[in-house]
Amino acid sequence: MKEAQPRTIFLKDYQKPPFLIDETVLHFDLNEQGATVKSRLSVRRNPEAELTTSDLTLDGVDLELVSIAIDGVALSEGQYAVTEEGLKVIGVADTFLLECETLIKPQEITCLEGLYKSSSMFCTQCEAEGFRRITYYLDRPDVMSRFTTTITADKTLYPVLLSNGNEVERGDLESGRHFVRWEDPFRKPCYLFALVAGDLLNIDDQYVTASGRKVSLRMFVEPQNKDKCEHALSSLKASMKWDEDVYGREYDLDIFMIVAVDDFNMGAMENKGLNIFNSSCVLAKPDTATDSTYQRIEAIVAHEYFHNWSGNRVTCRDWFQLSLKEGFTVFRDAEFSADMNSRTVKRIEDVNLLRTAQFAEDSGPMSHPVRPSSFIEISNFYTLTIYEKGAEVVGMIHRLLGEELFRKGSDLYFERHDGQAVTTDDFVQAMQDASGKDLTQFKRWYDIAGTPVIDVDYQYDEQAQLFTLTLSQSCPSTEGDADEKPFHIPFTFALLDSNGCNIPLIQNDDAVFANAPTELVLDFVETEQTFKFQHIEKEPVPSLLRGFSAPVKVKNTFSRDQLLFLMMNETDGFNRWDAGQRLSADIIQSIAEDYMHGRALNVDARLVNAYRGLLVSKSIDKALLSKMLMLPTESYLIELADEANIEAIHHARNLVRDTLAEKLKIELLRCYQENTDVGAAYSADFNSIARRSLKNSALNILLSAGDSDALVLAEKQFVSATNMTDESAALIALVNSDFVSQRESALNTFYAKWKADPQVVEQWLSIQCTSAKSGTLEAVKRLMTHEAFDIKNPNKVRSVIGAFCNHNLINFHNLSGEGYQFLADNVIKLNKLNPQIASRLVTPLTRGKKFNQERQALMQAQLHRILSEENLSKDVYEVVSKSIK
Ligand code: ARG
Ligand code: ZN
Questions:
Q1: Which end of the chain is more exposed for a tag (fewer CB within 10 A), N or C?
Q2: Is the CB of 265 within 6 Å of ligand 1?
Q3: Quick one: DSSP state of residue 513?
Q4: 617: alpha, beta or left, given left = phi > 0 and alpha = psi -120 to 50?
């Protein structure tokens, strides 16, 4: 018989905690066999609780209880009960001191939650519900406590012992052991607790806050990574400064620590004063890290630092409010990255991710609102919707209020809720109260899943010199619902004349012409709404949803000629790029249609000419150009399709790429030469990054098409590169070319050179696993037996299995069904070792809706196979059961 199905938790059932914990005193004894954890909790009844109970129920998973006492008296049998999910203490007083001793086995933990070992160090990951794997506790974010932590361990093996807050005491103990005590003066929920113990080096720096306080910055790494800290530390200082300048927020402790660990489920974690990072998201030097890694590190370091205010000082009441901290913090880190680099390029990258992956999630079986109303396993809700769409929602508030009022709103939010655990409603309320802008209708964005679709209709009346814009909206998830209400959508809009100049926008006659704006954020609040613009002398081209001002789909209304015009003339950088994407997508789609019908294939010459125009343009910004040269990805083309034919898409896209290579060889070679620096020192500024990206795109296009001049250039670049961006770009170009022997020898050389560096080996693995060449699945399986692979390490799993299933679509979706079976096999394997990783990995099997019946049936069969496994984790169960038809 099947075990009982996992329980669903509902937002509507939220109740305040019946007990509070004012003080948490922890004592850890770390040993090679396991760890002993002693806790002393000052517990009292919550005067505000709706529910009064005489028993205290604590969360606890996989703990061995050694002793338990209240107010110094050991409890006897019958006074408490240990269950699968925790511990119940029967009949407690209003205030008492609870002492517990538990035994845990960090060495045996493969799910990487709670206290575990990663190579030679002990570390923790407690968000969302990992603390219950350390000791019995009220493991929920609305229970905030002051923590004092003492760690004892062998002094030679673990000279460094870290926890949150300030170090207050240290000393030697018997038999070669020592201890360090840490005190965190700020109350916090237990998900922000952290502990690290290891033989680590520290790289020190300092930051002086706006008010003149000195903060020590300290990064801890294993000795071999000593020279990979500089970029993270400079990103940290830039973030600290930016948060003071833009949000008026200063850091609040005397020390800020960053630790790098190799085995980590996510990117990083914002534990108070002690951020823990996945090595791949924090370690970099020019010869091992690519430009995109440099930028990712800058963004993640900022993200975790910004959480100190948006997350730690003001935290979430419950996990349904996760986007309160994640959406807001992603918005903050995106603005930071935009200020540090090219704003347009940052927007393009974020929208690209949103439109391919978040839109797919939002129309898939796990679709959920920014504030979900139920879940089975909260780890499954660290999603693109919570993070990226959540950030878009905050961005829309920013757009509606403007810079100044938004700042007033964030000031009010931090002041009003400092030290509290609150909801997304509290956030919106602060924004509304500070700005006076009614956000009632806007809140719908938090509660309704799905991507709204906007239909655009417009007319120009030359006689009346009137331009009429009609917008209508619908949302697939509420289509046909009786209470279907419109969203409040900020729709940024402009009109361009035939020279590409912005036309003044006059909405009513008495507006003074000279003061008329040339760009407006239209408040689009009705199901259908009309906007009129007067004194428009000639027929204009509308510029719609500038900067992607809302996370919606705009139905394409433009002709190819209009798109060409926008591609060359649009003054909004994002829209200019988007016009190019729309044009290329349209052309690829019609070639794909022809391919499916066995018709002759040809590439619209207008696209080639447009690319030529871009390549020879002297005025276009290189950062923008580097993005415009990239064709829409296969994932995005699948997302655009109702039913995607992957072979047709793959073939059509390659044909366009090869045609560009052939027709624009001279321009591409010139682009390569002009953007190649010889002997220059590496710099990660956005202009240098753009130039490397341009040059490497040109090389890739040419070599993919089999150009032999490009082969010479790539081989030369591969051996002479002085940074990883150029070295790996050359390798990628070779691996994706048909020059088999050159490609094999480059892969071997690269591995021999870099096998001791796990971050580089991850790249080496994923470059092979994403190669579109046939037979890749066999190569992927072989790589899983290679010495470089380790199924217990999430980064390796992502660079092999994840890379193949998400980014090698032509091979993953092979009609043999072997790709699907391969994924299911590994999900089943990982379900036992690391449920969070297993559940994330399964995503590509849940995207069947976009494919034909045959593929859907193959995917469903694998989902059923997974579901029939015994001992399925809650994580995998939730995703798979929701994906089965
Ligand atoms: N709060 C972290 C961040 O976004 C993510 C940690 C999530 N961890 C997890 N196991 N679900 O910065
Ligand atoms: Zn975060």
A1: N
A2: yes
A3: G
A4: beta
Ligand 1, atom 2: closest residue by C-alpha: 269
794 CB contacts (<8 Å, ≥6 apart)? 112, 263, 264, 265, 278, 834, 837
CA of 343 to the centre of ligand 1 (A): 26
Q: Which among 584, 583, 566 is positioned nearest to 575, based on CA atoms?
A: 566
Which atom of ligand 1 is the closest one to the Cα of 311? 1
For residue 130, which atom of ligand 1 is closest to its CA?
A: 10
Whose Cα sits closest to atom 1 in ligand 1?
269
Pair type for strands 35-45 and 453-461: unpaired
> What pLDDT, on the 0 to 100 scale, is given for residue 514?
67
| Nearest to 347, CA basis, from 289, 309, 392 | 392
The SS3 call for residue 377 is coil
Residue nearest to atom 8 of ligand 1 (CA): 127
Which residues, 6 or more positions from 112, have their beta carbon under 8 angstroms from its beta carbon?
118, 125, 263, 264, 265, 794, 834, 836
| Active-site annotation holds for 304 | yes
Q: What is the chain's Cα-based Rg?
A: 28
ipTM of the prediction greater than 0.90, yes or no: yes
Residues of the chain with pLDDT under 50: 1-2
Q: Is 380 in the pocket of ligand 1 (CB under 6 A)?
A: no
Domains of the chain: 18-198 (2.60.40.1730), 317-447 (1.10.390.10), 456-550 (2.60.40.1840)
Q: In this predicted structure, what is the pLDDT of residue 510?
A: 61
User: What's the pLDDT score for residue 512?
Assistant: 63
- Report H helices in 269-375: 291-306, 322-340, 343-353, 359-362
Distances (CA, A) of 727 to 287, 290, 636: 9, 9, 27
DSSP 8-state secondary structure symbol assigned to residue 846: G
Predicted pLDDT at 478: 87
pTM: 0.98
Q: Which atom of ligand 1 is nearest to the CA of 836?
A: 10
Buried b (16+ CB within 10 A) or exposed e, 214-253: ebebbbbbbeebeebbebbbebbbbbbebbeeebebebbb
Question: Do the strands 421-422 and 315-316 form a parallel or antiparallel pair, or are they unpaired?
Answer: parallel
- Name, in order, each residue with C-beta under 8 angstroms of 825's C-beta and a sequence gap of 6 or more: none
Nearest to 375 by CA among 11, 15, 835, 9: 9
Which of 127, 270, 304, 326 is catalytic? The answer is 304
- Residue 462's Cβ-count burial label (10 Å; 0-12, 13-18, 19+) is exposed
Token pair of 769, please?
A: 């696993």
Using alpha carbons only, give the angle 424, 428, 431 rounded to the nearest 5 degrees. 145
| Contact indicator for 287, 724 with CB cutoff of 8 Å | yes
Helix axes 573-596, 560-569, angle to 10 degrees: 150
Tell me, in angstroms, the distance from the centre of ligand 2 to residue 680's CA: 36
Nearest to 508 by CA among 539, 541, 531: 531
Tokens at 806, concatenated: 């998400």
What is the pLDDT, as a whole number, of residue 459?
97
Would you say 622 and 691 are in contact if contact means Cβ atoms under 8 Å apart?
Answer: yes
What is the per-residue pLDDT for 52?
85
Angle at 686 between CA 680 and CA 687, to 5 degrees: 55
Which amino acid appears at position 53 of this protein?
Answer: T
Peptide bond into 210 cis (omega under 30): no
